[in-house]
Amino acid sequence: MPGMNEVPPGWLLPERRKVAIMVCVMLALFLAALDQTIWSVAAPKAVGDLGGLDLFAWPATSYLLGSTVIVPIIGKLSDAHGRKPYLLAGIVIFLISSALCGASGTMWELIGFRLLQGFGAAFIMANAFTTMGDYFAPAERGRWAGIIGGTFALASIIGPLAGGVLTDELSWRWVFYINIPVGGLGLIAITMIMPRQQAQHPNRQPTDWLGAGLLIVAGTPLLLAFSMGGNQFGWLDSPIVACLIIAVVAAFAWWKTARRKGDDGIMPLPMFQNKIYLFCTVVMFLIGIAMMGAMFNLPFFLQGAQGISATNSGLVTLPMSIGVVPASIITGQILARTGRYKPLAIIGGAGATFALFMLSQLNVDSDLNLARLYMFVMGASMGTLMPLYSLLMQNSLPFRLLGAGTATNQFFRQMGAAMGISLFGAMIVSGFSSQLTKAFPVGVDQLKERPEILLNPDALQGFRQQLEQQSPGSSDAIIQTAREALAVPVTDVFLYGAIVMAIVLAIAVVLPRVRFQTQEEMMANARAMAGANRPAGSPAPPPSGPAPSMPIPSSGKPPSGLPTEAAGSPRVAGREPPPAGATGDNGGSPAKQLNESVPLIASWARQRPKRIETLD
Length: 616
What we know:
The structure is a single chain. The chain has 23 helices and no strands. Among the domains are: about 1-205, MFS general substrate transporter like domains (Growth Hormone, Chain: A, Up-down Bundle), CATH 1.20.1250; about 210-265; about 430-485, no CATH class; about 545-615, no CATH class. It is globular, with a radius of gyration of 27 Å. It is mainly α and about 625 residues long. Helix 4 (about 70-80) runs antiparallel to helix 17. The longest helix is centred in the last third of the chain and has 38 residues, at about 400-440. Residues about 540-615 have low confidence and may be disordered.
């Protein structure tokens, strides 16, 4: 495993402190995830209060934009300076922007402050999952990966419920104000409990600010194009075409810069030479398309095609969030206990493919209990896949690239979600218009132009009255035909989602099997390397721990020409060796014992070819 011989100092902290750190980080993560869903319920009343119905979608779009485009940049910077300063900065930005959102006087102010809030969320989300790797060995991360996945699912369940209660009982502004006391508690706790990390590689090159700027210039118009395309503008309208051209040119310029920077780039290209990491990133991108693209449009089917209320629609989709929570936790426990991930990847991919395919078979008369069942299967499948691939992705990276690699993975998942929502939404609108034209060559132009009429009871009633005036007794038949016309493209979208998840299943089948090393195995491997590097005639360190499990060159020595550390100058990753004669301050602690037996192997890990331990 490339770079996995490095032993981060955070792994040596007491277990209780590591648990306390993760709880604090998950509290901050919960707030960032909550604000992705809590706004949807408060949005109608906020628009009614502030005006600007034509800007209805922009507060959500600006939050998505802010929480996506800078994630890789923050991940790379945290590799250089540690997670703590960026987590604290993210929470502070998030809390200040929450207060400003609640105090907004116009829709434009709210849009701007939501963008700022998205930046704060990016700081938090870029570091929350990475923090797990700072304090736990690969084999021990499974349970925490599951808990983090459950945290996201819990936020998606509580968000709409909390948003409704706060909006009805207090004001829509309180969906933002509630963040302040909860986030303040997390800020204080992280400040007191989380240690400040040293740089992962003190001799690092200057930050690639040119690459960071180009990445933002490429990502921003791309997200805007997919957010507005097929919605505010047609795909061939000049604003969308201009955004796509800017994105392509900036992405090409970034790629040229990233090739020269190597590991020092904001989004290091050498990571993608690792087959495991590449597979995991592609899978997360596809999951973003299928899950968000297909599931975001399910309310169109439930409310528009089947004619149920928004409340009942929420109750139908709720089983998906409920399924994610136990599946994430159980998957994490299985990975932590067995390290066997490939069967879970196949089961999760097959389950998601099955659920989306069965959703594509629904029609206007289908039993809602079937939809609830398929949504639960979908949620359980996603709860299995997302922590699994996130953990596998981290396991494929050297410690010095943990932040950049994790953030890049999240970036592509968010991009996939934005693309899926936009592309599938455009397919639904286009398909609905086509189906209506087949059924009614003339006479329903208003419905073709505004398909959302089927989703709004008041607008639908007005349309019904208009039909009755034109042709008495025809409204029920026309509306029923319109519902059936809407069901066709929506269920087609589920089928496209099933095809996307079938690709994820195929990737799971061809994934190589790798094992997650425990902290004890990695320390034992480090001791074995110490023996390989020890000059002839020097005393061997006392043996302890299990035999090394990671493959080393057949000669038993590191490749010639690579730097090694002189005997008696051991290091833990991120620490300088003690001066001669120093006794340190750890007494007989495990940290001192490790310092006495682990040589500097990070330099070898950085320069040797990337390898993955494959099981037979």
